[in-house]
Amino acid sequence: MAIDTWPTLTAASLLALAVLALTVWVWPRLSARGPRPVLGRVALQLAVTLTLGVPLLLAVNSSYGFYSSWGDLVALAREERTTGPGGTAAEGVRVDGTHSWRHRGSSDPAVIGRIDSVTLHGARSGISTRAYVHLPPEYLSAPASARAGFPVVVALSGYPSTTRVLIDLFKYPQVALDGVRAGTMRPAVLVMLTPNVVAPRDTECMDVPDGPQVETFLAQDLRAAVADHYGLSRDPRAWGVMGNSVGGYCALKLALRAPESYRAAAGLSASYHAASDSTTGDLFGGDDRYRRENDLLWRLRNMPQPPVSLLVASSRRGENQYADTRAFIDAVRPPARVSSIVLPSGGHNYETWNREVRPALGWLVGRLHTR
């Protein structure tokens, strides 16, 4: 059973109820004194706690979309051991294999394109991480000389998460294919990855002083590696970036801080400043100005705005960042431009984001230019 389906949640809940019933039935027999009854009571309490906790964790995962399969849990642990500075890719892009998938009954690359599973290595940052690259069927059939004409979208997940959710839950390639078939979107190359490229640390896509240079990796290394390997344009007008939650913050920040890399960005339920907790550590090296410059609201109000197109998405009810989203919209000034998707209601979860991905991706591709 998949990790994010109701049969899994039902089975876990039934197991928890069975353990609770067993505890109620056996407990009187363990009321005596002595080491064996005490150990028995402790074991039953642990069993109840653990089995009651599993349905809760599954429900939270289903709501927020952290993992789309049991394999993602294993993959996350594996990624934590193999990504980050000093990774194994020699340079640029290393294709590790092809992701097996189907869409609308077809697995033919001529119909649905191809998803490469790759390792990206940053020449400047020294960071290596795994990613997926979706090449639409139009790209695969195009001559090499025409491939520079395809726009490129970098799609970022939230934190914590894995890259697979971008295919399995958010369905970026599927949404793009449907948009092209409907005539509402041009074919685009999709580069999909988690912003957690130096797991397990959450860097909020920062160039951390004396630490990992994640902004450099996303703004410079990734673009150079992907463009060179796949014959794509390096023109920033051809590149867009989008994401949800932390990935949305990273997307908006990359456009505002690195317009020479990305000229369009979309943030779904984005935060507008870097988090600071046990998962991030010190991101600013005690530099208060650097902290302010990475606060997107402060940046818009106090620094020149670049010629970029931005989209933000939120919900009037259910999102705690709705007020900040309104403040962000109000703070954008020419030459920057801003659009928005505002839902009547919706929480900080993948059900809400799935309602926003389709229009946001179409908006983003529509603002990318390769000529």
Note down, in words, how this protein is organized.
The chain is α/β, with parallel strands linked by helices and 371 residues long. The chain has 13 helices and 10 strands. It has helices spanning 6-26, 35-64, 70-82, 109-112, 137-141, 165-168, 172-182, 214-230, 246-257, 288-293, 296-302, 322-331, 350-366, and strands at residues 84-85, 92-98, 114-121, 127-135, 152-156, 189-193, 239-244, 264-268, 309-317, 337-345. Strands 1, 2, 3, 4, 5, 6, 7, 8, 9 and 10 form a 10-stranded mixed beta sheet that branches. A hairpin with a 5-residue loop joins β3 (114-121) and β4. It is globular, with a radius of gyration of 23 Å. The termini are far apart.
Q: Can you lay out the helices and strands and say which pair or pack?
A:
Elements: H1 6-26, H2 35-64, H3 70-82, E1 84-85, E2 92-98, H4 109-112, E3 114-121, E4 127-135, H5 137-141, E5 152-156, H6 165-168, H7 172-182, E6 189-193, H8 214-230, E7 239-244, H9 246-257, E8 264-268, H10 288-293, H11 296-302, E9 309-317, H12 322-331, E10 337-345, H13 350-366
Parallel strand pairs: 5-6, 5-7, 7-8, 8-9, 9-10
Antiparallel strand pairs: 1-4, 2-3, 3-4, 4-6
